[in-house]
Design brief:
The chain is 39% helix and 19% strand. It is built from 16 helices and 19 strands.
Length: 525
């Protein structure tokens, strides 16, 4: 073998090994929640206390065992037990415990929502990790198996840390398991495992994949990772369109975005059909730009690193189907991830180019940095015309305009259907994935009319978020029930929240879509 051939062989071999190692990278294992019905007799404990120092049955058991020592310790510290407050005390000696982290439960009332309990659980898990590094058994002493299950759900999500790349183990905060003490063991465990654990795991995997760097998650590895998660789940069918399939189907919009990268575009289609046979499914279409340089219309480099999160919408639609399948939801749902890497390569499309979408409509490229709406144009049209959906939902980190308008509090929501928008608004408040409707009118559609093609993808004289929504709607039939969620401002957050301890992905949309589908589609005749 010549030296040149040998060098080429070694280069190709090392590239294959390198790519294989990246594909082999796995998501972290979701923290396991374990339920028990007895108090520990050693180590540390987390204990919920009602306002005024009122104890529940488990706290009363400790107080009696210590001859009033627990109530005395609470009184000495002046702990008022307002909701989500905390106080670390030395445990009364007779309890056998070392330390007790008191968690305020607030007033004893039945007015707490599921979201209240979730945030209590998340705050508590984070406080326990800060106090002990490893979360000890937690006893909240609230009544009702559903409340305890919601607390456990929040504790699992609140304990999420993306720390897999830390080589210093002292920085690791990942918890293998969390233990919850409850007298209602069987009913609590059943409710949690059947209804909440699949959703928690879906959010966990959605966060993991969104947090991964772009050298690990790109179109092909996104598909491989989710295929691994869906493996063995009932009623799941997966198809993947590669670049040749896109050319065959005239998907010039998504193909044009991905053609500048050495990592070609993909469209991942996951069908979960567990509802009435032949009934029109819900179609969820997610933007999956695994890294966005802006293409030829290059972004400012200062914050370009966080463009790995530009595939958050695609991750959330996959996570939603994972949650539904895990729960065994009796519904038909299709998730479509429109995946591409937007790079300024020698084969990249240019500003001024005209591409033809699957719908046949032509698109003038005004900016290659308005790429998300391009991949969704073909994803929307494919989903709408292939499945004739009962509902089509877009979810995408689409515009900076949405982020500037609504900040970190809400995702921007657009729809032609006010009743749908009202239902999503209500579900957003209930689940914590809050949305706020922004306008979409004829002027926004007129603004995207192009000089040299049917429509243009950027530069209109209209509010950016609304113009982006109008562009997406152009590739969906007017009578198809449709909602677009622009999650640019809420897909990631560098600050901790009660149900997300570390910076990074929020997995926005999984709770909202799971809750909406459960409320409006499951069990319907």
């Amino acid at each position: 073998m010549s030296t040149r051939l040998l060098c080429m062989f070694l280069l190709v071999s090392s590239t294959i090994i390198f790519s294989h190692n990246l594909l082999a990278a796995q998501d972290s294992t979701p923290t396991e929640v374990v339920f028990i019905n007895e108090l520990p007799t050693e180590g540390n404990l987390v204990l919920g206390v009602f306002a005024g120092g009122e104890l529940g049955p488990l706290g009363t058991q400790i107080d009696q065992q210590t001859e009033g020592g627990l109530l005395h310790a609470i009184e000495v510290t002046g702990f008022e037990a307002k909701i989500n407050t905390k106080q670390l005390i030395t445990a009364p000696k007779a309890s056998g415990l070392a330390q007790i982290l008191l968690i305020g439960l607030g007033e004893k009332t039945d007015k707490h929502s599921d979201l209240d309990w979730q945030e209590l659980g998340g705050n508590t898990a984070q406080a326990a990790i800060k106090a002990f590094k490893t979360v000890p058994a937690m006893a909240f002493d609230v009544s009702g198996n559903e409340a305890i299950a919601q607390i456990a759900f929040g504790a699992k999500l609140g304990s999420y840390y993306f720390d897999k790349y830390y080589t210093d183990t002292e920085r690791h905060k990942y918890q293998d398991s969390i233990t919850i003490i409850t007298a209602e063991l069987k009913t609590t465990e059943d409710h949690y495992q059947q209804e909440l654990e699949p959703v928690a795991n879906a959010i966990w995997y959605t966060r993991d994949i969104s947090n991964e760097p772009a050298n690990v998650i790109y179109p092909a590895s996104f598909v491989a990772r989710w295929k691994q998660h869906f493996k063995g789940m009932d009623n799941i069918k997966i198809r993947t369109l590669d670049e040749q399939d896109m050319l065959d189907k005239n998907m010039g919009a998504i193909y044009g975005v991905g053609r500048g990268s050495k990592r070609p575009p993909r469209m991942m289609i996951v069908e979960y059909m567990h509802g009435i046979a032949g009934e029109a499914p819900i179609v969820l279409v997610g933007k999956g730009i695994t890294f966005d340089t802006g293409g030829i219309s290059l972004k400012n480099p200062d914050n370009m690193w966080n463009m790995k999160f530009d595939m958050s919408g695609a991750a959330s639609v996959m996570g939603t189907v994972y949650a539904l399948a895990g729960r065994g939801a009796e519904v038909n749902v299709v998730a479509i991830a429109a995946l591409a890497e937007n790079m300024p390569g020698g084969n990249a499309q240019r500003p001024g180019d005209v591409v033809t979408s699957m719908s046949g409509k032509t698109i003038q490229i005004r900016s290659t940095d308005a790429e998300g709406r391009l991949v969704l144009a073909d994803g929307n049209y494919y989903g709408d015309t292939t499945y004739n959906p009962a509902l089509l939902v877009n979810i995408a980190t689409l515009t900076g305009s949405a982020s500037r308008a609504l900040g970190k509090d809400y995702a921007a929501m657009f729809s032609r259907h006010d009743e749908l928008a009202a239902q999503f608004f209500e579900m957003g408040n209930k689940t914590g994935d809050k949305v706020w409707q922004l306008p979409l009118n004829d002027n926004h559609f007129k603004a995207i009319e192009a000089t040299y093609a049917d429509v243009m993808n950027s530069g209109p004289d209209a509010p950016g978020a609304s113009a982006g929504a109008a562009f997406l709607a152009t590739f969906i039939r007017e009578d198809t029930p449709w909602v677009h969620l622009d999650i640019a401002g809420v897909s990631r957050n560098d600050k901790a929240s009660p149900i997300k301890a570390s910076a990074g992905s929020t997995a926005f949309g999984v709770r909202l879509l799971n809750g909406y589908i459960k409320a409006h589609f499951e069990g319907k005749p």
